[in-house]
Specification:
Elements: H1 6-29, E1 44-45, E2 51-53, H2 55-66, H3 68-75, H4 77-80, H5 116-135, H6 138-153, H7 178-196, H8 199-215, H9 233-236, H10 240-251, H11 255-269, H12 278-281, H13 292-309, H14 312-326, E3 353-354, H15 355-372, H16 375-389, E4 400-401, E5 403-404, E6 429-430, H17 440-453, E7 456-459, E8 462-465, E9 471-477, E10 480-487, E11 495-502, E12 506-513, E13 521-523, E14 528-530, E15 533-540, E16 545-550, E17 555-558, E18 564-568, E19 571-576, E20 579-586, E21 593-599, E22 606-607, E23 613-615, E24 624-631, E25 636-644, E26 651-652
Parallel strand pairs: 8-12
Antiparallel strand pairs: 1-7, 2-9, 3-5, 4-6, 7-8, 9-10, 10-11, 11-16, 12-15, 13-16, 14-15, 17-18, 18-19, 19-25, 19-26, 20-21, 22-24, 23-24, 24-25
Helix pairs in contact: 2-5, 2-17, 5-6, 5-7, 5-17, 7-8, 7-10, 10-11, 11-13, 13-14, 13-15, 15-16, 15-17
């Protein structure tokens, strides 16, 4: 036997250890779906019934209930009422066509979208349920109670809640709405359970979820398998993770988190034209390309899988995903998707965003705020909600834009007056949008309730004012009943008062998110700052008050395309363009119409300097500004008005620099 000296032997052993470690790491790198250890969320949500809007947010909810959210079933009864798709009109092999709300050409293409009405109905009900609860409207609450009773009566003995008869359910190799129809339905039922605390509802939800788990067994089935890579309802169904995560928060049963990881794993291993698949996210050369609303909602599913597994590889993929989304987001928070992202970088004039995409991306940022506790996600939520979302609503009518651009020069069907696509109708205002699809209007009814329900969160130390605005909360904190009135017109002024009501003195922490744009502020009492929060810890007594004042300054910034835009605090400013409205359709209900808007005189101004002046800012009643811009028509510099872009219809948000030649 050949002799080996000690030093050589030690080197051999070290090399062997290094090889084994490398092999282990390589094996782990090849399995991003391996469960390591689930990660606890930083914050916990406050029960939906514990928070109520006030001020302008309450008016927003009331307008929605008086408008399309409270009346969509009357505006399109054939889709919302007459098609009992979860009950007697469940889909069977015999059903080859259905009115799904899109007034397009006839043909076989409609068959694959037979699930559409489940989305229209259930997303509408979700927003309607939440709005009625927030407004505490007895008329609407009574209607919802009857709806809940009807839906629960449709549940089969085995727990099935859904849109397919027994001959079809769970037996797909192509496009279907099995998981998606359940997701949209159960999100609304979960909101009603939070409000009523009725155990029968929670039992029904858990039975429906268990029915899915039994029929799509974990790691022994392929719910996202498809013979074709383009699927709408099938891949929407990944958002069943919303239901699973909410059930985990209620029950603490980790099987729901494990199933989130399984769903994302199967989704990522199939051949699908979807951006959120693991290998695409970690590819630095891959640019987002898919249907916008899918991409932005799937952000939550990736986060769910990462937190369920604790696998760093999924955490890296999540960060890669966020970086890619930053490139597809305009300065107002609007995510590219009109309807497709198409590997494009955000452009304030040429890339539109869909209302569905705004709701889903905002909800994804809210979810990431809850999980990570990072205040930057609150900034992203506020930017999108206060600017792009408000700027896609008609401020005077009961209607929204299906598609919208930041720089909006026309709203006549095509993007900024384009007429080359004869069938493009989405760049207009409607309380229904049946000429395209009845999807954006239901989501427009969800966006404000979802903002409100995430305005406050809890952690082990106490409460966190996570998203700012006028509201009231009542919640138990360390065995004490605490009520807080948040009095403000934020973001339209920057004075915020918190009035605390408590049944007996108690020590806990109130954290107030400090937006990233805040450089100067004042707050009453002792406080500390950490991780983007103003932190106040004390023994709270009844009638304690926190007075908080931010001091915003108008700012000039550059977008991804080196154009200039203006902000003040949380608001993006815009130059409003005077327009003439024309009614293109009337509805049987009084006050409901489709509208188009044309500019009275279109001038696209050019940037020349950094000047911006306040008008009537100090009296806290209006937010108006002026800036000097170059008018290419007159060849002169002119003073123009700037206002919050959420108050506009036609407008210019970003300004190209004047050509000095």
């Amino acid at each position: 036997m050949k002799k080996i000296n000690l030093s050589t032997f030690i080197l051999y052993v070290l090399a062997k250890i290094f090889f084994l470690q490398s092999a282990f790491c390589q094996q782990n790198n090849e399995n991003p779906f391996k469960k390591i250890q689930s990660i606890p969320e930083t914050f916990q949500p406050i029960s939906f019934s514990s928070i109520k809007p006030s001020g302008w947010l309450k008016k927003e909810i009331e307008k929605s209930l008086n408008g399309f959210t409270g009346h969509l079933d009357s505006l399109v009864p054939s889709l919302i009422v007459q098609d009992d798709i979860y009950g007697k009109d469940r889909l069977t092999k015999k059903v080859k066509s259905k009115d799904v709300g899109a007034l397009g050409d006839e043909g076989d293409w409609k068959v694959q979208f037979l699930w559409w009405n489940s989305e229209s109905q259930s997303n509408w009900w979700d927003g309607y349920i939440r709005s009625a609860i927030l407004a505490n409207n007895t008329y609407h609450l009574a209607r919802i109670k009857n709806y809940i009773k009807r839906i629960l009566s449709s549940q089969d003995a085995d727990g099935y809640l859904g849109i397919y008869d027994k001959e079809l359910r769970y037996k797909f190799d192509n496009e279907n709405g099995e998981l998606w129809s359940k997701t949209t339905l159960l999100r609304g039922l979960l909101a009603w359970y939070e409000y009523t605390k009725d155990k029968k509802i929670l039992i029904a939800i858990e039975r429906a979820v268990q029915n899915v788990i039994v029929n799509y067994p974990e790691n022994n089935s392929h719910p996202f398998y498809s013979v074709k890579p383009d699927d709408g309802g099938l891949t929407h169904g990944l958002m069943f993770t919303d239901v699973l995560e909410n059930l985990y928060r209620i029950t603490k049963n980790k099987k729901y988190l494990d199933y989130c990881l399984f769903l994302y794993k199967d989704f990522s291993t199939q051949i699908l034209n979807e951006d959120a698949q693991y290998k695409k996210l970690i590819d630095p050369n891959y640019k987002l390309n898919g249907h916008g609303v899918h991409t932005y909602e799937h952000l939550r599913a990736v986060a769910a899988a990462y937190y369920a597994s604790g696998n760093k590889l999924l955490g890296d993929a999540l960060n890669d995903f966020l970086n890619k989304i930053d490139q597809t987001t305009t300065v107002t928070g609007g995510p590219v998707g009109d309807e497709w992202i198409g590997r494009r970088k955000a452009n304030e004039t040429n890339t539109g965003y869909e209302y569905c995409s705004m709701q889903e991306l905002m909800n994804s940022y809210e979810d990431l705020f809850l999980k990570t506790g990072k205040s930057k996600f609150g900034d992203k939520v506020e930017k999108l909600f206060f600017n792009a979302a408000q700027g896609s609503r008609d401020p005077n009518q009961y209607c929204i834009a299906y598609l919208k651009t930041d720089n909006s020069y026309y709203m006549t069907g095509g993007q900024n007056g384009d007429t080359t696509q004869k069938k493009q109708t989405r760049y207009s205002y409607s309380p229904v949008h049946q000429d395209a699809a009845v999807c954006c209007v239901p989501n427009a009814g969800r966006i404000t309730p979802y903002y409100i329900q995430n305005m406050w969160m809890k952690d082990k130390d106490g409460l966190a004012a996570s998203l700012l605005g006028p509201c009231n909360i009542t919640v138990m904190v360390k065995r004490s009943k605490v009520s807080i009135e948040e009095n403000t017109s934020y973001p339209y002024n920057y004075s915020i008062q918190f009035k605390i009501k408590i049944n007996e003195p108690a020590a806990f922490t109130i954290k107030i998110r400090k937006p990233s744009w805040v450089n100067k502020f004042s707050v009453s009492g002792n406080y500390s700052k950490k991780d983007g929060f103003i932190i106040i810890h004390k023994i709270w007594k009844n009638n304690d008050v926190i007075n908080l004042q931010f001091f915003p300054e108008p700012m000039v910034k550059k977008d991804l395309n080196n154009e200039y835009y203006f902000t003040c605090g949380a608001l993006v400013l815009a130059h409003p363009i005077a327009a003439t409205a024309s009614i293109t359709k009337d509805y049987p209900l009084k006050g409901f119409h489709d509208f188009q808007y044309r500019p009275d005189s279109l001038i696209v101004y050019q940037f020349i300097n950094n000047t911006i002046s306040k008008i009537n800012f100090e009296n806290k009643k209006t937010l108006e500004f002026t800036s000097t811009m170059f008018n290419p028509e007159t060849k002169k510099n002119e003073n123009i008005q700037l206002v919050p872009m959420g108050k506009t219809i036609l407008r210019e948000v970003s300004f190209a620099k004047k050509n000095m030649q």
